[in-house]
Amino acid sequence: MSEMKHKSIALLLNVWAEPKLALSLAIPEQNLLVRQSSSAYICAQLWKKLQKANAIKNFCTKAKLHFLSAVTKAERQVGQGHYEIKKLADLSQKYQLDFILLKGAAYIAKNLPNAEGRLYSDIDLLVGKENLNWVESELMLTGFRRTVIDSYDEQYYRKWMHEIPPLRHNKRSVVLDVHHNILPLTVSNPTDISLIQARAIPLENGLKTLSNEDMLLHCAVHLFHEGEFEKGLRDLIDLDFLFRHFSIENSEFQTELFERAKQLGLSYNLFLATYFCKLVLGTPFEADYFSNVMLYAPNKYKLTLLRVLFREIFIPHHSSCVTIKFRIARSSLYIRGHLIRMPLRLLIPHLARKSIMRIKDLFKKEKADTFAG
Amino acid sequence: MLTPYVIDKTSEVLILKKGLTLKIGPFSVNIKCSEKTFAKTFCKIYAGFSFLQSSEYIDFHINISRPNHIRRFIRPYINFINDGKKPFKPLTAQEAFPFFEWGLNWCVATYAHHYFMLHSAVVEKNGNIIIFPAAPGSGKSTLSTCLMLSGWSLYSDEFALLDKDINTITPFGRPVSLKNESISLIENRFEVKVNSIVKGTSKGDVAHLMHKNINFIFEPVKLKKVWLVFPKYTKNAKTSLIPLSQTEAFMPLIDQSFNYNQLGSEGFKSAELLLNKCQRYAFEYSNIGEAIELFDNLITDE
What ipTM does this complex have? Predict the structure, then answer.
């Protein structure tokens, strides 16, 4: 790999780690920084971070316009998010239901530092499994519709997944993911969701979020069960923000987090989150906490393998960063993602079916969806 | 102004190999493609545009390419790739050029939030500017092309790029896009030859026309005398120009804004400023000769 390529791969991560570097970038590097951060879905977040570090004054006008366009879009999303949250709060109050906000929606509702400039694609909600059908039909009465999926997908969701097929609002086009668990039912040791629900914390508006520890653990579990990592870096940055923020709020946070992970059987996921946050983003940890978490590390061969693969994947998925190593890591982690989510007896028929559908799709008559001109 | 490199035959090779960076309107666009026919059409239509050196900031990196699987060879199709992302489903290879134009529209509409953007044609004559916001199919491209071929300067047939304080408008001159019957209408009336017609796209037959009256200066122009005219082509309709109050013009205006919603309260302010600044009309027509005469008179009556 040439030195140029090496330098360009590291650009975003270097600037993220050391915002002052942004002051001395030439125009093509500024251009690349905007492109990499957009492809990693953190353009607006990066701008906010650089702004706080007083590192934006040397950007050229065009680079600034791109950052500000991303900020406009992100702020609009946050505005819409608050509106949707309010609507859900009304519904939960009307029926005295427990609605627990997850991920992006929870960060917005709690105004956590990572919500600033963060893009989110949908609103995630956790409800008790016993209320699922009922909640779904109530949501449909307020304008949410099932997204079009085929009967196989439908059945697959209902039988094996931790969520129902996404619902899209017919006017506001927001997408709602209604979960009844934090992981698919096909993983080898599903978490007891009632333990998590019991610790949920009410917000002023009647909705709930997970407790701080559970919120972080959910973020970790979610990230390290993924098979696709286009948003992997963004999610790792979420974890970094949460680690730092909660540790400042509560000096016992890291100890409590470790205990909680043990209780829920999620220590290995906490190890992965901790290890890669430190490795990629330099997240600070207390020495005791870190050595405790390292007890859950796999043997040194597996650890080396995981380190090599995840190091490659937590970068912007942008043409300027794609190398052969990256491609290998991406394919390997894709397979890993499937293997940990499903036992082989389910996975093989599932993937076979999906590949056939994909080949069929290649020859379907295209229905154009081009932007009206 | 930058004119060290002008598009010519050698640019075709550049598009296919390294990518070519052009200033189109206030944006710089890097274009790369896998299709020889696209490169040829592109260089013909954009001939006369200047291209930029590699050290300049590039707003959009666009790649028009065939996929790396069977559809590369059998019934080939192409993707519109915007810096690695594919916002659209693929189209057939012969639709490459219209695909590029539509895709670039999408790139601008989803990015340029430093403007108050309208889906609109814009024409100018002697400092008088007419903005024609309209939904697709209302005949705004045909109308503005006819005005252009009758001596008006065309700022754009798709976009009004207004600054948020509604002091200036920025020309975004590009080949005008003509569809179906309007192609032969323009050819017959003005004795111009429209090349590069692509038949049977999702929007029917599509052609793109370049002309010297399309504004390629791309510098913001101060808004002095401005009209806001909502055009509607109706078969056999009598030519009519009906004044609209600010309230009446508000909904049709924001309906045609690409980013009224994105801009939130800023968008509302821009819309209000624009409605204050303009004379506002609803315009219905079927006879293009009468339409041209009407707008020529409209600005001289002032």
Answer: 0.91
